Every structure is written in structure tokens, then in C-alpha cells.
Amino acid sequence: MSPAGCSHVNSFKVDNWKQNLRVIYQCFVWSGTAETRKRKIVEEEHSRWITGSCAREVSHGSSEGCTNFKAKSCICHMCGAHLNRLHSCLYCVFFGCFTKKHIHEHAKTKRHNLGIVLCCYSTFVLVLPVEAIDLLYGGIYCFMCQDYIYDKDMEQIAKEEQRKAWKLQGIGEKYSTWEPTKRELELLRHNPKRRKITTNCTIGLRGLINLGNTCFMNCIVQALTHTPLLRDFFLSDRHKCEMQSPSSCLVCEMSTLFQEFYSGHRSPHIPYRLLHLVWTHARHLAGYEQQDAHEFLIAALDVLHRHCKGDDNGKKANNPNHCNCIIDQIFTGGLQSDVTCQVCHGVSTTIDPFWDISLDLPGSSTPFWPLSPGSDGSVVNGESHISGTTTLTDCLRRFTRPEHLGSSAKIKCSGCHSYQESTKQLTMKKLPIVACFHLKRFEHSAKLRRKITTYVSFPLELDMTPFMASSKESRMNGQYQQPSDSLNNDNKYSLFAVVNHQGTLESGHYTSFIRQHKDQWFKCDDAIITKASIKDVLDSEGYLLFYHKQFLEYE
User: Fold this and answer.
1) Which residue from 173, 186, 415, 446 lies 20 to 30 Å from 134 (Cα-Cα)?
2) Cα gap 28→33, rounded to integer Å
3) Please, which residues have CB within 8 angstroms of residue 527's CB and are 6 or more apart in sequence?
4) Residue 70's closest CA among 103, 100, 48?
5) Pairing of strands 528-532, 544-549
6) Is 509 known to be catalytic?
7) What's the CA angle centered on 104, arms 102 and 106, to 5 degrees?
8) Residues 361 and 440 sit within 8 Å (Cβ to Cβ)
9) DSSP character for 490?
10) In the predicted model, is pLDDT for residue 149 greater than 60?
11) Buried-exposed string 298-316: b where 16+ CB fall within 10 A, e elsewhere
């Protein structure tokens, strides 16, 4: 409950309510222990409470009398139990079990009459809401709110009576609770500019020790641990390991890793077990040489996918090419390939699953089709087009444009029943929840081994509608049309992680930018994490771009 407390408890605050509450705390809450009640359990007549004999014992200063009274009286009036989280009604002489709901039954059936109000037509009986007090811990439970409540005045009485009881029992200040001093309260009052913890929360931000050229792994781990749905899956303990040896399960290790990241610890984590499991299940990545972050991402997703067996509860996804494990639910999309015969115009369509989209860049040996609108300063898909600047949209338009396969790559047409030249076009049949774009900066060929450093502008928000199979008609023959339906949010994404590579092909270093909250970005450089601006993120070179769907569909 909020510090303002519960409004229903005000019905108890009438007449001598403070003295009555003190008597309850003195006689039933702080005066004895569960063992005392267990040894001295004896039936006690209810009239003793009504006649005020307990109050007289308290007023005479007899702590032993209170202890005996509590031991004798604190039993459930319905089942006779004395340890099932007994609660006492604040309005009458009734003790009931919370565990067996006896105190709840009392609250429903024994509403306490406040009085009778007469009017011209009817007679109304006003009833009080019912509150009860936990006899073991002293908490106040409201049956209207269905929760334990906080009331400043009642809390003060409870603390005062607790201190008195401890002093009588010789405990003194040994178990006293912490309270701010007057000096601390004064400092808090004079610091009105302090921020709420929710706007400055850094739980989940934790550095990773470099174990010897393992920055390629660390930057991918940072991206995965900040993937919202993946985080929710692991922090809710959804994984059910079916491997004979859980110590060799990469999903179990990832679950432990998420617990470490979101434990609140600030010291850098040492991912030695994760590295060992990667070496075990992806032997091509074993060793202390620098590896490719993109290759590690695909290998990690593949192993996680294989080790997630059992997490889908036997359910199969709509797409028969993949299962319904958490990895496929988040990262798997459907890529549609349309091959069109140039003679009969028959179309052969296949749909393949994908975890990422690899995009060619200008400057590579692969011919790049210049698609930028020009130097007019226009904005497409949230990207500003400057003369000579390539955008992520340009790369996607090139990826989804029709491509003439040529005479050297003829296919057998099912309509012509002969080998014919054709065109091939890739589009998105099904978009994943997390779209990962791989900018192909490392070129490996018989003649060249180099890194492509072409700057690519990428947006904070991305609309994938133009690249869907359903939008194919608007891009026939390379003609691009801006989608008119700007209100369609199903295909819109937000950037949440960027992996960068600095250096050359032979010698380099990986870092990542992570979005912690909306518009709050951090740079992760192995064990060092620093605050970053949005400009820092968008000005970076970009190697792997992670986008999350803004709106999710429920099946």
C-alpha cells in the first residue's frame, strides 16, 4: 500500500482506538512467542476480553499476566489451532486461522453493525469493513483491500509496544529496526532534486571480463541479455532442462547468466563457464583467437535452439520449418523467395526461416545499386539522406530488389518444362520479433581479404512494411514507393542494441551499445560500461543492428 495507507481502517479509529490497539499489541502480539502459546494452550472464555481483565493486567504492569493470557487465548475459535497464522479481528473477540481462511469467513459473515439509519422508505444497517491483526508479526490486514496495509499511526503504536516488550524481556536494542536519524531526514528534505530510482535504474548493466580476445562473445552476450522477451523468459524460470547433464546445457548457463546480470551486482562478471560451453558445442569457435561476432551470434542461437528441447511443451509453430522454442519465437522470421520465369512468367515460391539478414555494402566487390534519393536532404524511414551517404533502407531495398539470374544460372521452369532464364526476388513473409541486420563489413574472396568501412546511416525506428511480400507489387522492377498507410504499426521496430568493430580485419576489437531504458544508452566495452548519447550510437559504424518489434501480436 502507499504511505497514505488504507481508507477502510479509518472506521476503527474512533473513541479510544489507540488505547484499544495498544492493549491488543501488549496482550496478543508482542507479549509471547509461538512456543509459549504451544506449551500453555488453554481454553479461555471470551467474556474475559469484554470485561477488560486483560486491560487491567496491562495497567497493573504484569508482563507475565499478558504472556499467560496470550498463551491461553490465542487459538482459532473455529478449529482450535494455535499456529496457522492466527489473526485477531480488530472489532470483536475472535481469533481465526489465516491459512485455513477462518478469519476470512468471519469477515464475510460477522460484519459489525455500526447502527441503524431510518428513512422514509427503508431501514439501512450500516456495517463496518473488517480488519484483522497478525498475531505473530503485528501486521494489519484489510479484507476490503485484500492485502496487508500500512498506516502511519498504527505503525508507530506497533513499534512503541514492540520496544516496551523487548525491554521487559531483556532484549534491549539487539534486534531494533533501522530508522533514519533526524540528520538523515533533514538531508533528505533539503535535497528536493533527487530522482526516482526508476529513471536512473542500472540493474542489468554489468561488465564482462575479457578472457583473452573474447570481446566478440561479450558484445553478443550484452545484446542477448538486453533482449526484452528473452530476459523475461529466463528471469521467470521458464526453462525445463531435459539434457542428461544439465552442466553441459547452454540454456541453463544462460539462465544463470541472466540471474547474475539482474542480481544488482556491479562488479564485472567472469563468463568462463559460458566460454567453455561455447567451445564444447561450437568447436569451430574454440581457442583464444579473435572470432567473428556475427558467427558467434548464429552459433549461440543454434546451440540455444537445440538445447531448448522441452521448453515448447510439445507445441509446434505455424511455420513447419522451425519449432516453438523461445529462440525461434523471438528471432526466427520467414524469408520468401520468388523465382519468376522470363518466358511464361510462372512464379516458384519458397519460404525459408532466418535468424538474421546479411546486407551488402557499397565498396564491396558485389555491385551495389545506388538507391539513395539524392542530396535533397529528404528523410525516408527516419533516416536523413546526405549526399553520398548509404542508409539501412538503401541496403534493405537492394536486398529485396528483383535480381536477374542470367544465362549461366538457368532453372528448370515447371510451366515451360525446360531450363529458362529467370529473376529472383527476396521479401519478408514473416517478420521476427527481434530483427538482426548484419552489415557485411568483412570481405573474404580469392583476391581480397579486407574490411569495408563504409558509413551506413541507421534509424532509431524502422518500418519494415516496404520490404514485406505483401508490398511486393509497389516495388516491381525496382520502382520504390513510400507506403501510404503510415498508421500500420505491425511492422515497426525500435533499435535496442548495436555491435561495432574497431580496427582492421587482422586486428580489431568489438564493443556494443545497449539501450537500457527509453532514450538511455550505454556503451559496453568488456568490463567497462559508460553512459552514451543517442548521437554516439547513430554515429557509430555499425556491424550488427538489433531491432525489436514495437507491437506484438498474440495468437
Assistant:
1) 173
2) 10
3) 207, 208, 209, 210, 268
4) 48
5) unpaired
6) yes
7) 75
8) yes
9) T
10) yes
11) bbbbebbbebbeebbeeee
Asked if the model's pLDDT at residue 333 lies above 50, the reply is: yes
- The amino acid occupying position 503 is G
The residue with cell 509471547 is: 32
d(CA 402, CA 369): 12
Residues 6+ apart with CB under 8 A from 301: 327, 331, 355
Q: What is the pLDDT of residue 84?
A: 65
> What cell does 429 get?
513473409
CA neighbor of 456 nearest in space, from 498, 403, 507 = 498
Residue pair 420/341 in contact (Cβ under 8 Å)? The answer is: yes
DSSP 420-475: E-EEEEEEEEE--SEEEEEE--EEE-SS-EEE----EE--SEEE-GGGBGGGGGGG
What values do phi and psi take at 534, rounded to 5? -60, -35
Grid cell at residue 305? 535452439
Cα first-last separation, the chain: 35
State yes or no: pLDDT of 64 exceeds 60. no
pLDDT single digits (tens) 446-505: 677 788 888 999 999 999 999 988 876 555 545 555 554 444 678 899 999 999 999 888
Q: How far is it, in rounded angstroms, from Cα 431 to Cα 412?
A: 30
Distance CA 150, CA 340 (A): 71
Question: Which residue reads 548457463 in cell numbers?
Answer: 253
- Rounded (10°) CA dihedral 227, 453, 278, 313: 30
Q: How far is CA 301 from CA 250, 438, 501, in A?
A: 10, 15, 21
Amino acid at 139: G
Beta bridge partners of 430: 334
Tens-place pLDDT, residues 358-404: 999 887 767 665 554 443 444 555 554 455 688 999 999 999 888 87
Instruction: Decide if 77 is catalytic.
Output: no
Rounded Cα distance between 542 and 327, Å, is 24
| Residue of 6, 54, 215, 249 with catalytic role | 215
Place of cell 568493430: 501
Q: Are 222 and 514 in contact (CB under 8 A)?
A: yes
* pLDDT, position 258: 93
Q: Which residue has the cell 511486393?
A: 472
Q: What is the mean pLDDT of residues 393-418?
A: 81
Does residue 40 have a pLDDT over 50?
no
Q: What Cα–Cα distance (Å) separates residue 316 from each residue in 121, 310, 320, 355?
A: 64, 11, 7, 18
**Residue 555 CB: number of other CB atoms within 10 A?**
4
pTM for the predicted model, two decimal places: 0.61
At 303, which helix (H) or strand (E)?
helix 293-307
Least confident of 90-99, 197-206, 521-530: 197-206
CA distance 355 to 294: 11
Q: Find the angle CA(167)-CA(169)-CA(174) to the nearest 5 degrees.
A: 60
CA distance 434 to 551: 11
- The grid coordinates of residue 163 equal 520496544
C-alpha cell at 350: 519458397
Averaged pLDDT, 231-237: 87
